[in-house]
From TrEMBL:
InterPro entries per UniProt: Solute-binding_3/MltF_N
Signal peptide start and end residues: 1-20
Alphabetical keyword list: Signal
UniProt-recorded name of the protein: Amino acid ABC transporter substrate-binding protein
Solute-binding protein family 3/N-terminal domain span: 36-267
Transmembrane helix listed as a keyword: no
Amino acid sequence: MKTVVTSVCLLAASSSMALAAGHGNCAAGLTLDENVLTIATGNPAYYPWVLNDAPEAGEGFEAAVAYAIASELGFEADAVTWVRTSFDEAIQPGAKNFDFNIQQYSITPEREQMVDFSLPYYTSAMAVLTTQGVVDAGATASLDSLKGLIWGADANTTALPMLTEIVAPEKDPLLYGDNTDVTAAMQAGQIDAALFDLPTALYLSAVVVEGGVILGQFPAERSDNPDTFGLLFEEGNPLRDCVNAAITALTESGKLAEIEATWLQDATGVPVIE
């Protein structure tokens, strides 16, 4: 009888431990290296996504999200390793050297033909980046004012369809190969404004574009298809289901919203464009 009772107690304890492990058991055997979670980010990685280009510190919105997901999956911080990739390199089909990549990837049907994405971990407002000279010339945070500006856009991002959908400028936007070219064109006076997700616009206005100003923001709900960011996986990676469960748990607990408030709170001062 004592043996039976002891066995039952051990079984109950084992079940409790399994439940306490959250989604940790789900990821067992699904990572590139056993008992290690390999996460990729940009090279370099920028504020406010990652502070000081040091994702291992867990500071910055995406670094904090990555470690929260890792914890939910059952990985301690010292079991997380980081690798670097370019944005375009990681989005190509084929084998990956990471378990997932967190690098402001907008989830689009076109990209989903080449890679897999998690559930969204962030839904972004879009912001209008311009310069103080344009503001001094009379530009305001109104649609009528925005329509008359000369716009630029990266032809490869979701900013272009959103610009057409929301602003509908009077002149066709000038198209560029990447966002570096867009900001260079702005500094050269070739364009007046461009759309970026709000955290990126905050960084560009403070660090990259001389005299940069954020004219205003469009809330995510203003667009029929708001920009949503997902973790990027090699197509068919079974780890995605475990990560989706982790993201759902973090969303329902309020932890994701808490991380967003901590690392993106500076965005609250940007006026809303009506």
